[in-house]
Amino acid sequence: MENQSLKEIQLQLSRGKISVLEIVANYLKKIESTKDLNIYVNVFKDEAIEKAKALDQKYKDTPEQMGRLFGMVISIKDVICYKDHPVTAASKMLSGFESMYSSTAVERLLKEDAIIIGTTNCDEFAMGSSNEHSYYGPTKNADAPEYIPGGSSGGAAVSVQAGTCSIALGSDTGGSVRQPASFCNVIGMKPTYGRISRHGLIAYASSFDQIGLIGTVTEDMALVLEVISGSDEYDSTVSRNPVPGFYQNIDIDQKMKVGVLNSFFEHSRMNAEIKIKSKAVLESLQEAGHELVPLDFKSIDYLVPCYYVLTTAEASSNLSRYDGVKYGHRAQNITDLESLYKRSRTEGFGMEVKRRIMLGTFVLSSGYYDAYFEKAQKIRKIVKDEIDGLFSKVDVIALPTSMDYPWRIGDENQDPVSVYLSDVFTVIANLCGIPALSYPLGYGSENMSSGIQLMSNSFEEHHLFNLSALLQNMA
Ligand code: GLN
After folding, report:
1. What is the pLDDT of residue 1?
2. Residue 358: band (very low, low, confident or very high) from pLDDT cuts 50, 70, 90
3. Whole-number Å distance between alpha carbons of 13 and 374
4. What is the 354 CA–ligand 1 centroid distance (Å)?
5. Which of 19, 51, 75, 77 is catalytic?
6. Domains of the chain from N-terminus onward
7. 152: cis peptide before it, omega within 30°?
8. Fewer CB within 10 Å: C terminus or N terminus of the chain?
C-alpha cells in the first residue's frame, strides 16, 4: 500500500474496495512488526482506530463533506505538538509532558480528515544527524538495521521507509528532513522558511526551523504542503503570500535551467558512487529537455561554521525555558533556586544538547559576541547574496544531499566535528531560507541509499515538485 497515491486510495474508498479502518489496521500491523526499528515514541492506536471508524461513517452519511486528506495516515516527529498528546523532543527533559495545544500544521491536517498515527523518534531537540542522540535510543534504518537512518528526523524517515504511514512530518533546521530521507530512499522536502507556521513546533533555532515532509509520492507531498501552509496569527514569521495550488499545478513538462553546483560535487569528502549516480540523474534531466548550467560556490567553507555559530546561539536562548520551574524535568530534593536550575538542566538534557547550549552561550557572551555571533550573521548575508546571484541565472540548483552513505550506529558518535562537517550540503538552504527537496538515488553497491538535492528560490517550491514528479515518472 505504501507507494499508492492518495488519489488511488480515495478511488478505492469510493468504490467500497477498502475502508479507512482497513488502511489504519494495515499500518498498525506494520508498526507492530517493525517495533525493533524503534521508529515511534508513541503510537495513538486506539484513537486512530476510533477516528477511522468515524471517518468511514462520515463518508457513508455525508460523502460530499470529506476533507481533502481523507484516507491519509500521517506520522509526526516528536517535536510537533498535538493537543492532549505526549510530546517530548526525544528528551528526558520533557518525558511525560503533554501538549496543551495543537500546532497549526496538525490542526490543518485534522481539518482535512487526515489521521495522525503517532509521534516519531528523533535526535534530542532535533540536534543531530543520525538519530543516535535520542533519550529513547537510536532508530534503525529499515534497509540495514545496524545502520543509522540519518537525522534528526530519523524516525520520520523510517516511518515512511518501513511503510507504517503515507506521509511523515519532520522538522528541518539544517537538513533534518532531507538527509534522513536520502538515507532511507524516500523523498524529503523542506519548504521556504515561513511557508508553514512554526506555531506548536518545539524550537531549536528559530530563524532556521521549518516543518518539512517525507513521503514516496510527489503529488501527495504537494497536497499536504498546500493544506498546512499559509498565514497564521500565531506565528509572526510565517509568510502571508497566497499558497499556490501545489498539487493541481504539477507540470512535468515545464523546462528549466538547472544549475549544477560543482563546488559540492567536487568536495574532498564526496563519495564517488553518489557523485556518479547524481550526475546520471542530471543527464537524464538534460535528455528530458532541461538545460544544465555549471555553477561554482565560493562561500562553501563558511557554511558549516556559520550554521553552527548561529543555531547554537539561538538554541541556547530557546532552551533556557527548560529550567525545572515552569514545566519539564525538575530535580528532586533541592533547597535553593540556583541548584534547582543547574540540577534540573544537568539531569534533563543529554550530552549533545548540553554541548550546543554551551557553544551557543559562549558565542553570545560579551567579548566573543562580535568575533563569532556578529561575524556569522554577516557571513549568512554573504551566503544569501551569493545564492541570490546564482538564482538570477537558473531556476533550480542541484547538489548532492549528503557526501556519503549512512554509517554504522555508534561509529561516528565520538567525533561531533566530523558529523557537523557532513552537514555542508544541507545547511545552505536553511541559511538562505530557500526550499529544497531530496530525491532518492536508489541503492548503491553496498545496498545503501542517498539522494540528489534540488533547491529553488524562495516561494518557488513548484519547480521542485515538477522535477520530483518528472523523476518519479521516469523511474
Ligand atoms: N544535522 C543538523 C544539526 O545537527 C541538522 C539538524 C536539523 O535540521 N534539525 O544541527
Report:
1. 37
2. very high
3. 56
4. 15
5. 77
6. 1-475 (3.90.1300.10)
7. yes
8. C
